[in-house]
Amino acid sequence: MSETKKDFLRAIVEEDLKAGKYEAVHTRFPPEPNGFPHIGHAKSIVLNFGIARDFNGQCNLRMDDTDPTKEDMKYVEALKDAVKWLGFDWGKKVYFTSDYFGKLYDYAVELIKMEKAYVDSLNEEEIREYRGTVTEPGRRSKYAQRSVEENLDLFERMKNGEFEEGAHVLRAKIDMASPNMKMRDPLLYRIRHASHYRVGEGWHVYPMYDFAHCLSDYMEGITHSLCTLEFENNRDIYDWVIETLGLKPPRPYQYEFARLNMNYTVMSKRKLLELVEGGYVNGWDDPRLPTIAGYKRRGYTPESIITFCEQIGVAKANSTVDVAQLEFCIRDDLNTKVPRVMCVLDPLKVTIENYEGSELLDASYYPHDVPKEGSRKLPFSKEIYIDRNDFSEHPPKGYYRLTPEQPVRLKHAYIIACKEVVKDAEGNIVEIKAEYYPDSKSGSDTSGIKVRSAIQWVDAASAKKAEVRVYDRLFKCEAPEGLDDLNPDSLKVIKNALIEPAVIEEKPDVRFQFEREGYFYADPVDYSDENPVFNKIVGLKDSWAKKEKPKPQPAKKQKQPKPVQKEGEVAPMSAEEQGRYDRFTHEYKLNPEVANTLARDEKLSHFFDEAVAAHESPVTIANIVANDVARVFKENGTDSLTFGAKEVAELAKMLDEETISSKIAKQVFEEMTATGKAPETIVEEKGLKQISNPAEIAPIIDDVIAKNPDNVAKYRDGNQKLFGFFVGQVLKATGGKANPKVVNDLVREKLEA
RNA sequence: UGGGGUAUAGCCAAGUGGUAAGGCAACUGGUUUUGGUCCAGUCAUUCGGGGGUUCGAGUCCCUCUACCCCAUCCA
Questions:
Q1: 3-class SS at A513?
Q2: Which of A246, A288, A301, A523 could tie A474 with a disulfide, CB 3.0–4.6 Å?
């Protein structure tokens, strides 16, 4: 993990490792076994196991099974299958939160003893009511007053099953007025008399996610607990539990990333379940579903899914990935892997009138650009089938295939020409009578005939009948909202496709490219040699189809007039703020924006006044205070400042006297906030005084110009952007000390010369 | 409405004050016995809007806007 691009999570891990915060990284993939895994899980699996692999750490597979009413062993198996299928190794054992019920209970008891948790006996409705709303604080239940002894007794009896469900809950005692709703005395345990799929009947209380998850992470020695964005608000509880219990380090920290969304499909458990239970698809492994089982059954390779997950990256912005990206990954993977064979989806009979007998043609399984060996014999005789799409009686412009006037090559065989089109009573084409050119045999063609296209075909006598299931997007729109958006043509079953015999007799693979059609997979469930069934994995790119009927492209990007953005109202200033503002603008002649920033912030105003008292240079000081000091205040708060107004005044003075450049001033300021040293000392120690002597700067510029002839040419060619590049290079060469104004002038002068 | 997040091309996404990476999609052209692959090329004067600071801002400051998450005894 060095030269490859890092996502923000890997950056955090690397930094923590470098800082010695942990000895090794330890992640976990913690699904609740209450549904079948989908490609969103794959993203998380690839992330968690991938980070562990990249940094030589470990990744646990943990079933987060704290709700006995929802979970089931079949989901555990499905989850394990998914991880295994993707090629990751969870080590010795699968972890279960349910294995920690005992320890978790002990931690809860500890919290009660610390008076940080209490048994609440409000009912569900009351609890909701007491919680308040996002704008109003909640209020604490009277039961929060219970003594430690009473809480201990009650909690134990809850565990023993003495109470009805809902009679009591265990809650953390945090803050009912917290602006974070999650922190308003979150529930830790609830009573459930349900039987747990793993631990059975023993327990009558079950821990909640917020209590169990952080502690499970801690107990397993997890270092980085990665979860999706919707848990951002839960992070405070995560930290609270670990801190309140005073657990000894190292402890895990939670980081959040955006979950995967993809267009033309749905990803939520609820919606997926609706599709399956409603019979809109054929089970959890329906190849149209974005479930791991679906992709697997459809014929996707684990490699392609992993590549996809790596390509889309990990970030914090909610986004919807184009399914075309996934399709690219599987095509790209299969292109170099699978044999090419011929299958005719919509057969049209062709009789080659001047051909007699039969022969076996040599045909490689792989095209010239795939470095793999292997071939089969292709039977050829008088009667063959081609695809109906590959003949056109009245061809559109640009049609390369067979027409009454245009010959075509039969892939791996001869060139044929159409002699007669046979139609039925309704005028449908039922057969083509054709002629072949004996000297045009593939590999030894001396006919000199040029054709535009080579099409797939099968020999009538030896071809096998096959069922081909052609899948299209499950939904007809990018962001489906409900069942109404289902694509009625998402599954097309072709019963009478014809396939060359070698596919069944030789079985060179289970995945194939059906030449010129796409990639297909022998269905692992329904396939038999007697009744072959193939699933379409993905089609080939088809630039002819695109040309023939162009998609209704959303009107080309006309330089649209920028949508005017509504501007909200700015809160009016208080009298006090207004007073400061007036003073700053009149007395000190500050720019209104800067004055505004300062005036609206009491601490900044005060800081500013103090600094000006030390050095009478209001404008310079105001700029530093309103920009840089404001940032420090924002980031670190105003307590524990390492510098005071006096230091800022000194900095301003050096700036005013041009001892240092504004660029260096930023650097000095950083140093000042980090170490608390006086600006003069920093400048002195690091030798940061500005270089303004042109004689000193000029040779450096010459050097930069000499080293970048390409960019000089580009600049002189009119690429004005490069000006900044040269200035930057010169500044870099001088450690930022060159006076940028002088550099600018000199660079311009020399470049224009 | 309080709090927590996010905003860079049609879709993802790098980018930590000095030339707006990369992938997908799209579009040219070349090679091709797959209208595939491959190869060469095009595709952001600009980073949600407006101001400010700076020689220089996608990056720092102020402000506005839009979207997502939180008031399950789910996770």
A1: strand
A2: A288
How confident is the model over A251-264, as pLDDT tens digits?
A: 999 999 999 999 99
Q: What is the dihedral of CA A175, A179, A182, A187, to 10 degrees?
A: 20
* pTM of the model as a whole: 0.96
Complex ipTM value: 0.97
Q: Which of A53, A259, A388, A433 is catalytic?
A: A259
Q: Which amino acid is at A536?
A: K
Instruction: Give the pLDDT of residue A558.
Output: 47
CB proximity A337–strand B (7 Å threshold): no
- What is the tens place of the pLDDT at every residue in A301-326? 999 999 999 999 999 999 999 999 99
In this structure, is the dihedral angle defined by the CA atoms of residues A608, A613, A618 and A623, taken in order, positive or negative?
negative
Nucleotide whose C1' lies closest to the alpha carbon of residue A624: B53
Contact between the CB of A623 and strand B at under 7 Å:
yes
| A259 a catalytic residue | yes
- In whole angstroms, what is the distance from residue A291 CA to residue A271 CA? 12
A137 touches strand B (CB under 7 A): no
Distance (Å, whole) CA A584 – CA A596: 9
Tokens of A657: 């006297």
Asked whether residue A378, judged by its CB, lies under 7 Å from any atom of the DNA or RNA strand B, the reply is: no
Task: Using a 7 Å CB cutoff, list residues 693-752 of A near strand B.
Answer: 708, 711, 714, 720-722, 724-725, 727-729, 731-732, 736, 740-741, 744
Three-class secondary structure of residue A469 per DSSP:
strand
Averaged pLDDT of chain A: 95
Task: For residue A217, give the 3-state DSSP assignment.
Answer: helix
Distance CA A52, CA A59 (A): 6
Per-residue pLDDT, A550: 64
